[in-house]
Amino acid sequence: MDTPRLLIADDDKKTRDFVAAFLKYKGYDVVQACDGQDALDKLETEEVHLVITDLMMPRVNGLEFVKKLKTMRPGTVIIAYSAFGNYEMASNLLKAGVFFYLEKPFNLDELETHVKRGFEHQSLQSQTYRAKPALKNRALMPNIIGESSKMLSLFELIEKVAESDSTVLIQGESGTGKELVARAVHDLSNRKTRNFVPVNCAAIPDELLESELFGHVKGSFTGAVANRIGRFEMADRGTLFLDEIGDMKPNLQVKLLRVLQNRELEPVGATRSKKIDVRIIAATNQNLEKLVATKQFREDLYYRLSVIPIFIPPLRERKEDIPLLVNSFLERFNRNKKSKVKGIDSDAMDLLVHYDWPGNVRELENLVERLVILKGFGAIGVNDLPEKFSGVTISPPSESMTLPDSGICLNTVVEEFENNLILQALKKTGGNKKEAALLLNLKRTTLIEKLKKRRLDTIATSFA
Ligand SMILES: Nc1ncnc2c1ncn2[C@@H]1O[C@H](COP(=O)(O)OP(=O)(O)OP(=O)(O)O)[C@@H](O)[C@H]1O
Ligand SMILES: [Mg+2]
């Protein structure tokens, strides 16, 4: 992107001119439109990456405009403002994909901060949109949120896989959405009107799993008081989802392999086998190849299952999806819990984007739920986030340290490293502890405590 280009739509010429002049002065290339329709017309021919819009406009109003724009150019970052905002409007805007919503009157510097962040967000996404493949069925997977190129490739793969009847093996860390993907494959397939039957192989005791899967006949073991059909049969002409397949014990692995090979099964205690027509989708958060290498998982079964492997990347490898996930979870939990949380401010969003999410989307979803409950209304800020988010934006030291063979005293080294950064912060701020604490994302009192404890106060005052 050369000069960043944006469009401002507002029917009030005075405001529009004023904002346009300010942003031009700040180095942006600005296109003006006098209402939603005019903006849509201009966007047919003008290439802009960010749109600022008023909400109360004649002809096509703000919300309508936003919706149309999102269909026409999904990658455009939109900042909306209004003097008549209310919670409902803010929530609808978020849902429609608005990046930030400002209430009038706002100050121009504030607007510029959001514009800057909007462009950053846009450049993160731009690759995604350039690579956007034609997805026929994206609308049929509304539960799976994501716009990153990795997720778009995943959607494409799901579509292709759904058309076939082949066995699928879904791998990915915990909380990446394996079950969601399995359901999507079923929902897009010819089997969609039949059952999707999940079985969690790790949750069912080993001795019961066989009868759970294949069923049993009355009297075949103590407790088998009646004939019972297994999950395979429940999934007849539908899909069986074998979750946590990595936890299946070797003796059952053999039996499963036989069923997959012969497409027929024998209920426990039965003398005759039954034909089955079931599509298998298996999933695991373990590295199955490793389990195969260490002989904990049968190699032949692994190949049977991984006819079509699907790998879901961890959230930290598709950080551009984080704002979208946060906003849609906010919207959902607001609705479910009748809360009125208006959004999340950009500093807090930055911290969320920089965090590594070891628990992936599940961790993010749980956090947003907690925040919505605790906050209730207003906008979520940095102070609302749990402790672990503070400081995540500090980049690690450029030269990574090699551990000497003789070892180190971790506490001393870490303390020295901390001291060094603390003194740098004080130097930068001319000894101002409040500002230094801000630079370090510490409370002022915590900083003062550290200075005292480490006898750094005299050095600290020397910077003043
Ligand atoms: N892309 C996504 N969009 C929306 N929600 C998602 C997405 N990915 C995961 N989730 C949500 O995160 C939670 C975890 O997803 P899911 O249960 O499918 O993960 P999993 O990979 O099966 O995890 P585990 O290995 O721990 O079983 C669910 O509530 C799911 O709805
Ligand atoms: Mg799961």
Describe the structure.
There is one protein chain. The protein has 19 helices and 14 strands. By secondary structure, it is an alpha/beta fold. The chain folds into four domains: 5-130, Response regulator (Rossmann fold, 3-Layer(aba) Sandwich); 138-313, Rossmann fold; 316-389, Helicase, Ruva Protein, domain 3, CATH 1.10.8.60; 410-462, Arc Repressor Mutant, subunit A (Orthogonal Bundle), CATH 1.10.10. The strands form four sheets. It has a five-stranded parallel sheet, with helices on both faces. The longest helix is centred in the N-terminal third of the chain and has 23 residues, at 108-130. The chain starts with a strand and ends with a helix. Mean pLDDT is 87; it is low at 128-132 and 392-398. The site of magnesium ion has 3 residues, from helix 7.
Beta-strand content estimate: 5-15%
Number of separate helices? 19
Present as ligands are: adenosine-5'-triphosphate, magnesium ion
Helix content class: 40-55%
Give the name of the CATH superfamily of the largest domain: P-loop containing nucleotide triphosphate hydrolases
| N- and C-termini, Cα separation | 43 Å
Predict the CATH topology of the largest domain: Rossmann fold
CATH architecture field of the largest domain: 3-Layer(aba) Sandwich
As an assembly, this protein is single chain
Main β-sheet, in a few words?
5 strands, parallel
What average pLDDT do the residues reach?
A: 87
List how many beta strands DSSP finds. 14
The CATH class of the largest domain turns out to be Alpha Beta
What would you report as the Rg, rounded to the nearest angstrom? 28 Å
How would you describe the shape?
A: globular
Order of strands across the biggest sheet? 2-1-3-4-5
